[in-house]
Amino acid sequence: MKISNEELSELILSIANGDKSAIGKLYMEMKGAMTAVAQSRLPRDDVEDAVSDSLEKIVLKAKKFREKINPKAWIYKIVSNTCLDRLRVIKKARTTPLDPIRNYVYDSEDFGIIVNDAFTVLNEREIKIVTLSYWYNLSFDEIAQVYRISKSLAKYYYDKAILKMKNRVKD
Q: Does residue 48 have a pLDDT over 60?
């Protein structure tokens, strides 16, 4: 069933007014299109997470939606921007492995102090994921199984954590 722009606008406005059932309806109507947009911009492993993140952003931004705006274009823009955000994090993380932190430290004793300080900017999940990956050499598949999340989400959290740590060490 194709949904009209008017019906879609009504769903978004319902979400803005707190109607939780409208979220599911919007998702069911738009998941195919949202997935297609994400697939055109991201690696396959990241698509599902990007669609989920996009739906969350749609809910958070629903109050800013105006009826005169094309609702499908508004949703596609949110999905597209979510994909771009994920790509930026992935790109930065690829260029920021944990080992370069050693470049800022001359003494191996200082390295432990620096890493401990860098860990202060991470939340508990990020600390565990970095620890499992870096010190226990678990793959992202294994980490994903431990936390019951997708492999791409495990990698995303890891990349984000490493970037936060690198920025902390630079300061």
A: yes
Query: Of 13, 50, 14, 8, which is closest to residue 28 (Cα–Cα)?
Result: 8
Backbone angles phi, psi at 39, to 5 degrees: -65, -30
Q: Does an H or E element contain 21, and which?
A: helix 20-39
Could you write out the three-class secondary structure of 69-90?
CCHHHHHHHHHHHHHHHHHHHH
For 159, the token pair is 């990349």
Using left for φ > 0, alpha for ψ between -120 and 50, and beta otherwise, residue 145 falls in alpha
Helix (H, G, I), strand (E, B) or coil at 95: coil
Q: Which long-range contacts (C-beta less than 8 Å, at least 24 apart) are formed by 128-132? A: 129/154, 129/157, 129/158, 129/161, 130/98, 130/158, 130/161, 130/162, 130/165
Rg for the chain (alpha carbons), in Å? 20
The most confident of the ranges 34-38, 82-86, 128-132, 134-138 is 34-38
